[in-house]
Amino acid sequence: MTWKSPLALVREALEGQRARESELRKLVSNLPYEGLEKGKQPNRFFPSNAVKTTKYSPLLFLPKNLYEQFHRLANLYFVGLAILNFIPVVNAFQPEVGLIPICVIMCLTALKDAWEDFRRYQSDKKINNMPCFIYSRYKQYVEKRWKDVRVGDFVKVVCNEIVPADLLLLYSSDPNGVCHIETANLDGETNLKQRTVAFCFIHQNPGFEPESFNCAVVCERPNNNLNHFKCLVEKPDKDRVGASIESLLLRGCTVRNTNHAVGFVVYAGHETKSMLNNNGSRSKRSKLERKLNVDVFFCLILLFTMCLIGALGHYLWLESLPGVPPFLVPDSNGHLDEPSLASFYMFFTMIILLQILIPISLYVSIELVKVGQIFFITNDIDLYDEETDSRVQCRALNITEDLGQIEYVFSDKTGTLTENKMVFRRCSIMGTEYPHKENGKDFLTETEVIPDQKLLQQITRAESGGGHRDSSRDKDPHLDFFLALAICNTVVVSMANAHRQRVSLPLLKRAGSFIQRKSKRNHTILEVPVTDAAKTDSREDRNGVQTCSLHPLSQSGGPTLEPEDLCYEAESPDEAALVYAARAYGFILLARTPDSVTVRLPSGEELVFEVLDTLTFDSNRKRMSVLVRHPVTKEYVLYTKGADYSIMELLGTPYAGEKRNIEIYLKNIAADTQHHLDCYAKEGLRTLCITKKVVSESTYRSWSGERKRAKAAMECREEQIMETAVQLETNLTLLGATGIEDRLQENVPESIMALREAGMHVWVLTGDKPETAVNIGYACRLLEEEDLVINMSCKNKLTCTSILDCTLEEVRRYGEDPSNVDTTPNISLVIDGNTLTMAMSPDLQERFVDLAKRCRSVLCCRVTPLQKSGVVKLVREKLKVMTLAVGDGANDVNMIQAADVGIGISGQEGMQAVMASDFAISRFKHLTKLLLVHGHWCYTRLANMVIYFFYKNVAYVNLLFWYQFFCGFTATAMIDYWLMIFFNLFFTSTPPILFGIFDKDVSAEVLLGVPELYRTGQVNMTFEYNFLTFWISILDAFYQSLVCFFIPYLAYRDSDVDIFTFGTPLNTVALFTILLHLAIEIKSWTLVHWIIMLGSVALYFVVTLAYSAVCVTCNPPSNPYWIFQSQMADPMFYLICTLSTVVALLPRYTFYVLKNSVAPSPLLQGRQLDRMDPSTRDQWIKEWRGFRGGGPVKRYELSDPPTPTLETPADFFPDSDADFMGDDLSLNVITQNRQRVVAT
User: Where is the region Disordered (predicted)?
Assistant: First the structure.
């Protein structure tokens, strides 16, 4: 190692920083530089692949941990007081004793942090030492460790192996240059994804030789976006070829169904996308914690007030002395402090003496209680889903009590309220509707499609073609429609009996195909059988690594494939449903590669379409397209599918141009199809339009050049790629439309009804059409038949302002009408995305929020993910309410993170919502018990425990404060210091913790049967913990401390008892009073409660007796030796304890008796229901719900109306909303018996 000057080191460090922070970085192969010193390595500035997630090191653990703990103001406060106690002029008791409480708390916290960090260290060590294969200059792959991987290396990954770093895919053993990966470790999605070799290497000879790689790789700065990657490969001749995320293997992914692949390391270690997304567990501050901090501040003010009284009292006492009493000892110079200075010192001494007024153990106790609450939540059998073998997950550990204070619930629709298991229901081809009535059966799964007989006959006629192929058959719109369904998607085809292997590697999760999810979503088969229809290559490479390759046989490579042998894995359930529909009509998707798609026709003939490009779906275009070359006609054909509003405006020439009056024919087909789409939407079906376009060869050549340049661009690549897609997707020919059913999840209507009865406003935010969303809204009882439904849709801001003002005026006038004082209008609002954007503008958002808060339900249609999060933030900030957002897909992540509480549903769209959430459930119905039962319990338990802690500390510390009036405010304690410490650390610490974990004010059955009980935790009806209840508890503590002090004082007045003989009964009375106060608060007694309460009393007597027996000189000059034994032999002691406890608790007990007798609270009435016989209780709840109008909920089933035609009346669907009318505005107000339309 050569010596470098400090200047050279600084220069090299700055150069490395510039290289790492540059927007673009140029990487080359490490092979020519292998063996050279680090200074000559071209990629030396980029980090290695070793990862370190630990926070501490053995040497720096103590200072760093102390530094973190001192960020908590409470710790600083108590440490400061402990240090202050070492100053002789202000110390209240032995300095060492004052350090014990804070040292115990901080040591426990340090041990917890050390254990957590040690577990992180073990995980890092295990991951860093995982094996991988790196190419060396000896022309072979050498087994090394993950931590040895460097940027610029060539890494080989084999089947079922985890990718060690972010690799640019340069070679795959698959003949089509495809590598299948599973990204479950990153986003939770178990469906396979395809990655393709970088374009410039896709046609290389078999076998990749890394030493021949003489290109430079230019890539963007590392970022955490898992869906985007900008890169280009620069050849020696300066030719540049772009690469995207489709050619990037991310660290943490697992290679599946591919023998082996070779990649070039572009990012390593902490710069990989997976590590940049590893933010650790979520941490939020709950609303109760914020309220707690305010009350701690009040206690601090109370403490300073008491200390000021003590200091002033000491000053007045010193001034009133006629001379210098003998117990005032001067300093070494014989000098006594002036009364003013002595009282100044006494202020700080009093702070030390009364410091436990601030509950030091409260924060630790809250953490312990939350751990216990989370344990019971995660182990609730009612929140377990057998189908997915999953239970509720608590990802944010410190906001459990927020579940009991929710006022607004924001929900996605697809996959959250519905199953997200799509069933093909209807289709329209060239203006003719095919209803598929048999597909409406509930027992059908997403893979089962029963063909419509009329359409099947049409397909048969088109396929026959007179017994030979002709141009009319190749251009039949019915055939093209199903070819589009089979081709225009990203479905991965594999063998149904060739499942992924399971290997025992860290970070590996279970995987399963899409069709397997119907029985068990994460099911995994451990075998890979070899059958006639599947070819499995299993061999050892030259490094002795067992690999596998799995793919369907080609047309010429083996026997004919049967449809049941195929397995379709789709990123979207919609795509899978369309592919299964095409398969039902004989258009079977057999294979998909980056360059081709193989489809078998009903006649048995197999066509291999050359894939020229795929225009992927994005949220701006709302469509996707696949450009192929027809194997028979050799035409360039663009198949497109997408939302109707994004397709209809792009229509051009009609199909084949065979009609004489082209424009009339085109309009008729579009109008017929649009009518069918509207009917589908009113049934609640998800709709898509299918189109085709024949592209001329010259147009394709010109467009292909622009597309290639866009893909190679490093600046604004996404925008340029989208522009090329929009450029080609014009003058489309409409083939038809589809309607897909997404059934409601089980018990969704019951759940929404329960949430609304619990006082929550339910909003549904969806990207669906208004007609579809409204239909689902009625089905799930978000909207009721008797509701006043306001539909808002406008095209300009002026009309939006007008309608907001008019609607608000009507609603306010209704509320101000004296005849409507005791009635509440059931108002619901339906608003589309464009109107919502205008309503959320700064000048209109106040009016929009004012209208929305008066609505029981709000349904937002055609909204984007950004609008979802914007709505949540707007409501939360403007109304100052507790919000909850629930969703299941990546488009719900922003909404989930914007809410106070985020709930993710582990559904069919992966796990991104779950990974971004605070709590994860598997079914929407689980939200009911999570909020109404566990949320209520968590909040009431913690709220009561926090109030009890404040009461306990104030009551105990006031005993010391009252004694100061009789000792000249000299900060003298009549209770031994060790017993004072033991009182809070041991004698009274465990009961409130168990109270916070186990107490149940009302049973789960009653909370679910009477959802209105949940309202006790909401802001406007908070009975448990508010400003009033806090100060009532403080005043009660003052009263009880007065009783506990002055009854013993009056009993021993004029006697000759010493200070500790007087203080021992006070300590005992305080223990009994504080524990019995808690006994009054406990609503449900269990064996654990009895053991802990009696155990605390027994522990007090045992420890105090032992301490009095052995402590001869523990606290000179006064010592508590044998005092407690003497007290227990005196009958006066028992009389004092009994009388003081009864008098202290009598007001609280009397208050509860009167309150529960005269004005019982809803919770007390709920507890009275618990005492009933279960059958009687259930009958009472049933009758009560019937009286309230919460009768049985109808199951949602789509109807089978007659086939819609142009002659069908416009109001055929009477229960749905009226059509959105006009170009500017349509406001529909719907009631049960009439419909009023206001249009401008």
Answer: 534-557
Structure pTM? 0.75
971/957 Cα distance (integer angstroms): 12
What value, to the nearest 5°, has the Cα angle with vertex 484 and ends 481 and 485? 90
Please check if 892 is assigned to a binding site: yes
Determine whether the annotation assigns residue 143 to a binding site. Answer: no
Q: What is the pLDDT of residue 43?
A: 87
Model confidence band, residue 187 (pLDDT cutoffs 50, 70, 90): low
Please state the domain count of the chain: 4
72's tokens = 């908590």
Q: Indicate if the pLDDT at residue 846 is higher than 80.
A: yes
Least confident of 462-471, 684-693, 1032-1041, 1066-1075: 462-471
Domain boundary among 741, 763, 796: 741
Residue 500: inside a domain? no
Res 39: pLDDT:
78
For residues 758 and 841, state if they share a domain: yes
Could you tell me which residues come within 8 angstroms of residue 681 by beta carbon, excluding any fewer than 6 positions away?
687, 768, 769, 770, 771, 772, 775
Separation between Cα atoms, residue 676 and residue 428, nearest integer Å: 7
Would the pLDDT of 659 be above 80? no
pLDDT at residue 1209 above 50?
A: no
- Per the annotation, the verdict on 541 as an active-site residue is no
Percent of residues, the chain, with pLDDT higher than 70: 83
Please indicate, yes or no, whether residues 1060 and 1035 belong to a single structural domain of this protein.
yes
Residue 712 and residue 680 share a domain = yes
Report how far residue 190's alpha carbon sits from residue 517's, in angstroms, rounded to the nearest whole number. 10
Domain range holding 768?
384-418+743-813+825-930
pLDDT at 1203 > cutoff 80: no
- Check whether residue 392 and residue 454 sit in a common domain: no
CATH number at residue 878: 3.40.50.1000
- Residues contacting 1178, CB < 8 A, separation 6+: 1009
Q: Summarize the confidence of residues 731-742 as an average pLDDT.
A: 90
* E-only strand ranges, 127-185: 131-135, 141-145, 154-158, 166-172, 178-182
Q: Helix, strand, or coil here: 271?
A: helix
Residues 972 and 1094 both lie in one domain: yes
Q: Give the model's pLDDT for residue 504.
A: 34
Please say whether the beta carbons of 946 and 925 come within 8 A.
no
The answer to whether 153 is annotated as binding is: no
* Residue of 936, 932, 899 whose CA lies nearest to 1017: 936
For position 917, what pLDDT does the model report? Answer: 85
Asked if residue 731 belongs to a domain, the reply is yes
- pLDDT, tens only, 9-18: 787 788 878 8
Whether residues 408 and 450 fall in one domain: no
Do 727 and 755 have their domain in common? no
Query: Where are the alpha helices (H) located in 855-917, listed in sequence order?
Result: 865-879, 893-898, 912-915
Considering the candidates 153, 402, 412, 1036, report the single residue annotated as catalytic: 412
Nearest to 991 by CA among 1102, 1093, 1087: 1093
**AA letter at 747:** N
- pLDDT of 871-887, one tens digit each? 999 999 999 999 999 98
CA proximity to 962, closest of 1061, 1067, 1060, 1044: 1044
Check pLDDT > 80 for residue 103: yes
Question: Given this model, what pLDDT does residue 512 score?
Answer: 31
Which of 870, 899, 930 delimits the end of a domain? Answer: 930
| pLDDT surpasses 80 at 502 | no
The two tokens of residue 644 are 């109707």
Whether residue 575 is annotated as binding a ligand: the answer is yes
Is residue 413 annotated as involved in ligand binding?
yes
Annotated binding-site residue? 832: no
Asked whether residue 76 carries a pLDDT value surpassing 50, the answer given is: yes
Q: Is 412 annotated as a binding residue?
A: yes
Query: In sequence order, which residues have a C-beta less than 8 Å from that of residue 960 and are 6 or more positions away?
Result: 353, 354, 973, 974, 975
> Rounded to an integer, what distance in angstroms lies between the CA atom of residue 935 and that of residue 397?
13
Specify the CATH number for the domain of residue 197: 2.70.150.10
> Would residue 520 count as lying in a domain?
no
Query: What type of residue is 411?
Result: S
